[in-house]
Design a protein that fits this description.
- A two-stranded antiparallel ribbon has the order 1-2.
- The longest helix is centred in the C-terminal third of the chain and has 29 residues.
- It is built from nine helices and two strands, in the order ααααααββααα.
- The chain starts with a helix and ends with a helix.
């Protein structure tokens, strides 16, 4: 009972900080900057990486892209820079997915550690800020909607998997995840997308939110599995201890940071088509 209470309190604090920060752009930027540094520290420990340079890279990327995304007239070449960052980030993430399915262990030679910390972690936090500042307008409902879909997906996957799960989804990496749980989370995310579309006043309709629900469920699950594989290689249960009852902050954000570049890609696609 005490462990459950501790888990509930730390989880409520985390969610409250996130939701409250959505009311003020600078608070959101500051919160995710701190979150990013904590996750980076946890991840560097997982991959046994002692270099200080990833902190510098993260700071430059986060402040640079975060600042220019928040103003209405960014400098020439900013959109092209986002596209390059997006291509590199998705490229690295696709390789991590490949390693997830084809490699017993994810290769972690020195140069790859720099690449992964930059384009798996640091750039993903950049895309969270870009989502909140989409089209250079502070619209936190996009980010809040993505988090809600992640939370619903995780909750649905846990409940359905625990009660009905039989077929293991990826037993070599995460023995508790099941196919039934994944489908249950996906279904509830799709249902939730209807209510997000109904009660928000954005230019996204139900079809758009439905697609975002699928993107979040699929890539969020893959992000969870990728982080689980890193933890398994490091022979640890959690990425850290900063959230009592939950583990590390990276354990709570692994799904959304992996899905963020794909969410932003879809938002850009909508703008391009329209």
């Amino acid at each position: 009972m005490k462990e459950l209470s501790t888990r509930a309190i730390s989880g409520a604090l985390y969610i409250s900080l996130l939701i409250l920060s959505l009311y003020w752009q600078h608070a959101l930027n500051a919160l995710f900057f701190v979150f990013g540094l904590i996750c980076l520290a946890e991840f560097k420990k997982l991959i046994n990486f002692t270099s200080f340079l990833p902190y510098v890279i993260f700071t430059v990327l986060f402040i640079g892209f975060g600042y220019w995304s928040a103003i209405s007239n960014p400098p020439s070449g900013f959109e092209e820079a986002i596209q390059i960052l997006q291509v590199l980030t998705i490229f690295v993430q696709l390789f991590l997915i490949k390693d997830l399915f084809s490699e017993k262990t994810i290769p972690l030679f020195s140069s790859k550690r720099y690449i992964i910390t930059t384009f798996y972690l640091s750039s993903s936090f950049v895309f969270l800020i870009l989502i909140a500042n989409y089209n250079h307008t502070f619209t936190p409902v996009f980010l809040l909607g993505a988090f809600i879909l992640i939370w619903i997906n995780d909750t649905g996957a846990y409940l359905v998997g625990k009660n009905f799960g039989k077929q293991k989804l990826f037993p070599s990496v995460s023995p508790k995840k099941t196919v039934e749980g994944f489908l249950g989370g996906l279904f509830l995310s799709c249902v939730t997308s209807y209510f997000i579309a109904k009660f928000t006043t954005t230019h996204l309709d139900f079809t758009h939110w439905l697609i975002l629900g699928i993107i979040v469920s699929v890539f969020g699950t893959l992000g969870d599995l990728v982080e689980s594989k890193f933890k398994r290689q490091a022979n640890v249960k959690d990425s850290g201890v900063i959230m009592p009852g939950h583990g590390g902050l990276l354990d709570r954000l692994d799904s959304i940071i992996f899905a963020a570049p794909f969410i932003y890609l879809f938002l850009r696609f909508i703008t391009y088509v329209s």
